Amino acid sequence: MLKPLMNFSGGLAAALLVTAAHAVALKQEDISVAEVLRDRALESSDAYSHVESLTVEVGPRRAGTKGDERAVAWAQQKMKDLGFDRVYTEQIDVKRWARGHAHAEVTAPFPQPLVVTSLGYGASTPEGGLTAEIVEFADVDALLKAPARKVKGKIAFINKRMERARTGEGYGPAAAGRSKGMRAAAEKGAAALLLRSVGTDSDRFAHTGMMSVDGVENPVPALALSAPDANLLEAMLKRGKPVQVKLNVHNEALADGPSFNVIGEVVGREKPEEVVIIGAHLDSWDEGTGALDDGAGVAVVMETARLIAELPQRPRRTLRVVLFGAEEIGLVGAKQYVEAHANDLEKIVMVSESDFGAGKIWRFDTRIPESKFAIADQMMQLLAPLGIKRGDNKASGGPDGSVFVAQGVPAMTLHQDGTDYFDYHHTPNDTLDKVDPENLKQNVAAWVVMSFLATEMEGDFGRVSTEH
Ligand SMILES: [Zn+2]
After folding, report:
1. Each residue's pLDDT tens digit, 177-211
2. Selected catalytic residue, list 136, 265, 327, 353
3. Residue 327 known to be catalytic
4. Alpha carbon of 425 to ligand 1 centroid (Å)
5. Is the separation of the CB atoms in 334 and 400 below 8 Å?
């Protein structure tokens, strides 16, 4: 991450020149209002009460489940109560799946139970379970390269550890095993996949998550193993004897069904057709209450819009809060949104998503033309006192936001400290007690500065490069 930060100093110099050429990008009066909003956000505890409400009154809300239905109703009611001008839903179609049981135990040479969970949309074992020898791979690439005879009839065990980092950059390399492992195992005739959980904790919880299942001819059961249990298998294998594991798994694939993107707007006073989108995802995995992923994000963007709606006048442009459905199972809500709105993507001035837990924001990235860096610099004047540094110009816009960026929509990302995020991510342990109310206030303070100034600024960012 150092490299882009250093590259940016060149950009900063360019931005200073632009600032000199076009004296002011944002009006001083707007900056003053943003400062008041920021300071109000630091005092309010409403964001915490929104995530508390979502986790207590709805809880787990995996796409296409009853919990998801309750979340959609909750979000609409909450946004109405908070004073949004328009609240509506847009239907999306989702694949549905019912999680049953997942048991695993070592049967030889040292019989003992293992803590596992099915990966999303995973298959079942035959009735009564299956028993097979495990074969270990350092990562999914090693499995992909292995000859089929080494894997056939066995349980492929991918034992890749995830590195802890503030940026979360260890996630991609580890998550590759989750997304591609089952397909690789099935194609080589394995009996099942066991995956060291994609996480940074040493707790005895397994981390679920999505995998690629489309077009896999004979899907096999796929289970994540808690980190201590992966250590246990590793230690048994070192003793040089075959390790036999019994799996007993039952899940059900269901017919496709509806879910919804839930949308709330603070309608612009001058250019209502121009839109700043701030998003989060409403769905969660089904084992925790989704406090960090992504209840905190839902709370942050809702509270940001509430504070702006409380001002004596509406912002110049429309601020649109989009609570995306079915993010966890493949960015489904965002993809269907972009498809359904292909003709009005031009009107989206900027997109940003909060979906990285509830840690403090430490860095501000953009994806805007260099000629507009002066606006980001002005935002930075209000963000810096919150402990936020300027990052690079390669903002992804967040997972759902990236789907818009791929269409050339400008984006901004307020990076949260993700050091602990993957201790809880996709586990039963993703619960409200992990959310620090003070950090959440700092988040809203940063979001309200960025969102308000984007709705008020002169001109727009045009379209941007979709390259990474
Ligand atoms: Zn998420």
Report:
1. 999 999 999 999 999 999 999 999 999 999 999 99
2. 327
3. yes
4. 8
5. yes
State the distance from the centre of ligand 1 to the C-alpha of 150, rounded, in angstroms: 36
Whole-structure pTM value = 0.94
Q: Is 415 exposed, middle or buried (0-12, 13-18, 19+ CB in 10 A)?
A: buried
Dig out the tokens for 4 from the structure: 């882009």
Residue 461 and residue 49: Cα distance in Å, rounded? 34
E strands, 109-241, in order: 112-114, 116-118, 130-137, 155-158, 192-196, 222-225
Cβ atoms of 349 and 410 closer than 8 Å: yes
Compute how many other C-beta atoms are within 10 angstroms of the C-beta atom of residue 109: 12
- For residue 418, give every residue at least 6 positions away whose Cβ sits within 8 Å of its Cβ, in sequence order, or none: 165, 166, 167, 168, 356, 357, 359
Q: Are strands 222-225 and 192-196 parallel, antiparallel or unpaired?
A: parallel
- What distance in Å separates the CA atoms of residue 82 and residue 369, rounded to the nearest whole number? 34
Ligand 1 centroid from CA 106, angstroms: 33
Task: Dump pLDDT digits (tens) for 115-145.
Answer: 999 999 999 999 999 999 999 999 999 999 9
Query: Cα-flanking dihedrals φ and ψ of residue 243, to 5°?
Result: -105, 120
